[in-house]
Design goal:
mainly alpha; 0% strand
Length: 86
């Protein structure tokens, strides 16, 4: 990650939320995780899987949803791209 593109606070430190959720890959992983959780849960229910397997897929889906929502929240709070200094 390039330091010049990150919003630095006092002392030049980058916020933890930006480091965790400030990347487009996080959004893609969140979408894929949510889809895996939904498809796995539906497939597990229709195939007669046990409760533990279904809860595992629901957990994967919730983690993916948390990643996607975290990315959107951080992206909405960050300022737009800055113009380069002359």
């Amino acid at each position: 990650m390039q330091q010049r593109n990150t919003p630095a606070g006092r002392g030049g430190r980058v916020p933890v939320a930006y480091v965790l959720f400030g990347n487009h890959r996080t959004l893609i992983m969140g979408i894929l995780g949510t889809m895996a959780g939904v498809v796995g849960s539906v497939g597990g229910i229709s195939a007669g899987a046990g409760v533990l397997e279904i809860l595992g897929f629901i957990g994967i889906g919730m983690l993916g949803l948390a990643l996607a929502v975290g990315y959107v929240v951080v992206a909405s709070q960050s300022k737009g791209p800055r113009s380069p200094r002359p």
